[in-house]
Amino acid sequence: MSEKHCDIAVIGGGPAGLTASLYAARGLVNTVVFEKQMTGGQIATTEWVENYPAFPEGISGSELSRLMTTQAEKYGAQIELFVTVTAMKRLDDGIFELQTDAGDTWTARAVILASGSVPSKLGIPGEDKYTGRGVSWCATCDAGFFKDKTITVIGGGDAALEEAMFLTKFASKVYLVHRRDEFRAAPIVVQRVKTNERIELVLSATPLEIEGDDTRVTGLRVKSTEDETERVLNLDGVFEFVGTNPVNELVAGLVDTRANRGHVAVEIDGSVTEVPGLFAAGDLTNSTLKQVISASGSGATAAFSALKYLEELDH
Ligand code: NAP
Description:
By secondary structure, the protein is an alpha/beta fold. The protein has 6 helices and 19 strands. The strands form 5 sheets. Strands 1, 2, 5, 6, 7, 8 and 19 form a 7-stranded mixed sheet that branches. Strands 10-17-11-12-13 form a 5-stranded parallel sheet, with helices on one face. The chain has a 3-stranded antiparallel sheet with strand order 14-15-16, with no helix packed on it. A hairpin with a 5-residue loop joins strand 6 (about 85-90) and strand 7. The longest helix is centred in the last third of the chain and has 23 residues, at about 290-315. The site of NADP nicotinamide-adenine-dinucleotide phosphate has 18 residues, from helix 4. NADP nicotinamide-adenine-dinucleotide phosphate binds next to helix 4.
């Protein structure tokens, strides 16, 4: 529909993108954030964040998102909500051209990719059929539907254990199904889960099928990895937290992500990709630590590098 221009385009409005836009805007360059939903990314639907410094009692994910957004806007970042960047290319003169689903074409002198990651699916029978009818990937969004009911959380990482704890505020019983007998999650969270009376651990168990009565979920069939026996857990809801996949479609043709399981490789000290003018931050990258603090840190680094890149172009 129309052509628009900015100095730095930030793709994604989670902690990495919001921090990048704060730093870029404070560098006094025209900064636009494209966010396909609301800002905050994965923390927007995280009940409680306990490990982001300066909040000794913790802070809700939605409030942390709101504060980060307000701070970026205060310094002049323009945030385009509910706008998806559908295609990106680097022109011969080094300018990036972005197409949006609003029909606009944007040009940018530099791009910071902070498109994050999305929850993985198990790919088992019943999952698609009962999505939204008992199968969920968002405890904050759907916990209220399971008051006094029995549910399961699948996974053994931080997300699974933290969300299992949160879900016990609603559900009367939470089966925590994990394929091994050891957890990846932080020890302090594992300790809390193990002492929570509403949580029953179902360990060394692989989910095979989500069962239902054609309208709603009624159970989860699991197989023991120890003796191959199968059992059905009778329940009303299934929450999957089995990892995440990087949102990397936009870099196809620009960056080869195959060596990093879909992640964009960056030079950690600069958030610099192999493409001049293209920077990346947060969960999309090959960084080891996937945390709000590290996403924000890499967002700041990406903005610093992008500002330096623009300055070098100008002189
Ligand atoms: P994750 O750490 O990758 O854990 C995924 C879990 O799902 C693992 O326990 C894995 O089992 C299990 N899993 C994967 N595929 C499976 C399958 N096909 N069937 C059954 N189980 C399967 O993912 P996450 O918990 O979403 O966390 C992602 C990143 O964000 C991590 O770096 C995490 O530390 C971070 N995070 C941090 C916080 C926090 O600090 N507050 C909160 C949330 C997330 P195995 O262990 O056997 O591989």
